Amino acid sequence: MTEREKIFTRIRDALKTQAPMPGHHGSSHKPHAISEARNAIAGARQWLPDPGADSAAWLEQFQKLSAELKTVVHLCNDEADVHSKLRELALAEGWRKVAAHRHPLISPAATAIALPALETDGGYDANEMAKCDVGITACDALVAQTGSIFLTTRSAGGRALSVLPPHHVVIAHRDQLVPDLPAAFELMTRLYGENQWPSMSTLITGPSRTGDIERILVLGAHGPRKLTVFLI
Amino acid sequence: MSDVAIAPRAQFFEDADRITHDTEHRRRIQTAMGKYYVSRYSRQALFRNWQEARQTAAETKWAALKELDKHLEAFERNATARGTQVHWTSTGEQARQVIVDIIRRHNARRIVKSKVMTSEEIHLNQLLEQLGYDVIESDLGEYIQQLKGEPPYHFVFPCMHLSREEISDLFENHLGTAQTHDPEELTMIARRVLRQKYIDADIGITGANFVVADTGMISITENEGNARLTAALPRVMITLVGIEKVLPKFSDLALFLPMLATAGTGQPLTGYNTMYAGPKQPGESDGPIEWHVIFLDNNRTALLADPQQRDALHCIRCGACLNVCPIFKNVGGLSYGTTYQGPIGSVITPHFRGLQDWKHLSGASSLCGACTETCPVKIDLHHHLLHNRRNAIDEKRGFLEGMLWRGFTFLINRPKLFSLSIKLGRLFQPLHALVKGTIFDPAAAWTKSRELPEVAHESFRDYWKRRQSK
Amino acid sequence: MKISLFVPCYIDAIYPKVAISMVRILEKLGHTIEFPEELTCCGQPPFNSGYWDDARRSARPVLERLKDAEVVVIGSGSCGAMMKVFYPELFAGHPEEASAKALSAKTWEFTDFLVTKLGVTDLGATFPHKVTFHDGCHGLRELKTKKQPRELLAKVRGLELVEMKEAETCCGFGGTFATKYASVSTAMGEVKCASAAETNADFIVSADSSCLMHVQGLLDRQRRPIRTIHIAEVLASE
Q: Max Cα separation, chain A?
């Protein structure tokens, strides 16, 4: 018998005896019927924090949480507005080299900054990316409920671009903002379906952070110290 | 498994006794947990219904375990379809062997790890260091503990017991950096050192918070970005994970990720929640060319076989039960001597490493239930401590203590004798002053720190008799 | 109503005033009190120590004697939890399972009984002191008695309740835990005492004398001026 078979045999033997439902002991909570329990996604929506009723409220919530998380959000009129704000930022922060990926929103922005740019498509040298001051990416969705950015290796130029450079800039359209996590997961399933999953999807909530030293918040533990979102 | 120098029980009593007398240590832990308390409960209050969310999470895990074999098979099918290699290991020894084989096959030298609690469980670092590999922990707290040569103090906050001064000293000694007491500067020192390690590493080893069956993904939750870098730059990625971490559906994460963040640290969502669905796919620009997912049993199936305590496998390792535990806050994390500290560790360690060797942790509880109340997946933690106590006695009855309880039962079932013993107690209590504070004090365990209460002049039953006879 | 009063061993021997106060309060409300003298202990000490056979041996006389009781009231959240929550588990799969469940259903912790069952909160008591309330863990988490004692205290004339920061944190008693793990128990108790002292209250009130025995022992040793008192004694004060 292989180790795999041994493990599965032990599991199946163990599962011959049923475990009591959660909340069975010392609790007044009546367990739900199991069909209801399996419908966690519907449950999640009604019990998670309220993201607000309409897209204006979602935007407000996203901005409020971003401020708490130290994500900088710029509302922009159009792409030209994004480009001019990006140029200002590049100047203010003294960027010398940027990293980006090929994308209808990102390529023109990288060009507009007029600095040497590393493009991740088709492979790159990690040492070179580590020298870049910023990684500029698109994303799949923004989540109002948690102030998060949902992106994948496919939508955002790979695994490292959004985490290795010290500043991560996201450019997105306002209609990419979804109210809550259940909506975000539904959207991702719609986008990537059964077997088309990118090898990495990530929900980014604020710049990299740690509280490991005396539980004091420090930004930029390993990933980006800054996270900036341009919302068109 | 006997990998400790002294018996776990003796070590616990020794360490717990030291920490309970270390006021500064206890103050530091209690201050940190005070901060946790504020952020966690204010975040929890934003849920429209936390209790219903908990119930759903608990039932989702319950249902996931009920069909654990099917979910694991589904994961394997979906993951291998995209080129992931899945390994099955029953013991720590087997898991270590699979890892070493992968490392050897790639002629790897440098290994970077993000937080992998399962690797603590199987003592992976010790082995890899013995074999001469360059192994580095990349989570800041784990890195600090690695430099200190100490296991994690708390499985979510690994170095919460250290002051910035102690960390500065560590960095000075090991890295030759200048003293600084600024947490930000200290973090940046580690950032600089570790940055190159990701780029140079041949192999990245990660853990996993969730195994998603229907998409063949694993999900990793972290704040620093070290796990993302570990999974992005090295050309081979290894994920070591317990077999119980299954969620049936991708969409289940929409509930579990915010609950983990809220219960763990009081964040709306942890900084990075990353779902991996294979090694680098065609057309992708980066990522490991090989991804190995190693499933570890290591006695998890023994816990699964105990239906009463099976819910302990629901654990999402948020650490909330440690944070609210008055025992943890007064004995500290290292006293436990376990990979998983606090109430959850006291419940599961006897199953993983032997009931008789680890039952003392189940005894080390006032059974206050703060852990059970806070657990986001409703593990019946403090009752399981009772169950472990019972199981330990059923398996091996203590001789002296057994006699004591026989005597106790004999006495309380005889009201007249019981009443007489109260009277004797009242009679002899004044004599206690003669031995109090000496080695002859039979109540020394109590009176070392507390005064004994006085037996009343008239017991209630005597009062009642007097009243009835009137 | 005919009320069977279960008096835990430490109340009987050390704190009889708690039970006397309960009798006074319940009789004043017009109820008849019965005291089953044959019963001394609920069996929790061996139960918590893992000796469930001995616990069952201790609990059987309780089941038998209270079989016909109309309602059982206990002045302790801890022993109350033992009979209400743990008896059914202790006897699960044993012949006494049904009678354990029946006893569980008619057993009440004192404050819960007054507020929930009788619907009484004002007992006409006067206690002109500043107090803080310690939630015994068994009462708080097994029996869910958070509001009941506070509703009762709110109606006591002259009484000022100041909540302490660590009201819901365990005092560290935990039965045999207090001596088996004495240094841990003591450290926990110190946190509790310091938290209570911060309120500058005159009394720590609780619905559990067992917690208070431990806390008072520490207070006496540390020579802190704050005193402990069971809620029944407060409610019987005039």
A: 67
DSSP A56-87: HHHHHHHHHHHHHHTEEEEE-SSHHHHHHHHH
Give the model confidence (pLDDT) of B46-58 as tens digits: 999 999 999 999 9
Closest by Cα among B110, B295, B98, B133 to B203: B110
pLDDT single digits (tens) B213-240:
999 999 999 999 999 999 999 999 999 9
Q: In the structure, what pLDDT confidence band is assigned to residue B442 with cuts at 50, 70 and 90?
A: confident
Q: In what order do the strands lie in the sheet with C71-74?
A: C32-34, C2-6, C71-74, C107-109
**Contact residues for C223 (Cβ-Cβ < 8 A; gap 6+):** none
Residues 6+ apart with CB under 8 A from A166: A133, A134, A220, A224, A225, A226
**pLDDT tens figures, B157-184:** 999 999 999 999 999 999 999 999 999 9
Closest CA to B238 of B378, B387, B84: B84
ipTM of the complex: 0.95
Chain B within 8 Å of C203 (Cβ-Cβ)? Answer: no
HSE-up of residue C29 (Cα within 13 Å, Cβ side): 24
Whole-number mean pLDDT of chain A? 91
Which amino acid is present at B283?
G
> How high is the pLDDT of residue B5?
59
Same fold, C2-117 and C130-235: yes
Of B254, B265, B304, which is closest to A181 when you measure between CB atoms?
B254
| Token reading at B333 | 């994390």
Predicted confidence at residue A42, as pLDDT, reads: 60
CA–CA distance, B331 with B153 (Å, rounded to integer): 11
Q: Which domains, and CATH codes, for chain B?
A: 1-46+317-396 (no CATH), 49-298 (3.40.50.10420), 399-469 (no CATH)
Q: Could you give the CA distance from residue B53 to residue A37 in angstroms, rounded to a whole number?
A: 11
Mean pLDDT of C215-227: 94
pLDDT of residue B3 exceeding 70, the answer is no
Cβ atoms within 10 Å, residue B23: 11
- Answer yes or no: do A26 and B59 touch at CB < 8 A: no
Confidence of residue B75 (pLDDT cuts 50, 70, 90): very high
Residue with tokens 């329990």, as numbered in its chain = A37
Q: B 355-394 residues with CB below 8 A of A?
A: 377-378, 380, 383
Chain A residues with CB-CB distance to B191 below 8 A: 220-222
Q: What is the CATH number of domain C130-235?
A: 3.40.50
What digits encode the pLDDT tens for the residues A160-195?
999 999 999 999 999 999 999 999 999 999 999 866
Contacts of A213 in chain B (CB under 8 A): 140, 144, 159, 162, 164, 167, 183, 186-187
Query: Where are the domains positioned within chain C?
Result: 2-117, 130-235
Q: What are the residues facing C107 on neighbouring strands?
A: C72
**CATH number for the segment(s) A53-231:** 3.40.50.10420
Residues A185, B253 contacting (CB under 8 angstroms): yes
In chain B, the percentage of residues whose pLDDT exceeds 90 is 91
Tokens read off for C183: 């240094």
What CATH number does domain C2-117 carry, 1.10.1200, 3.30.70, 2.60.120, 3.40.50?
3.40.50
Domain segments of chain A as ranges: 53-231
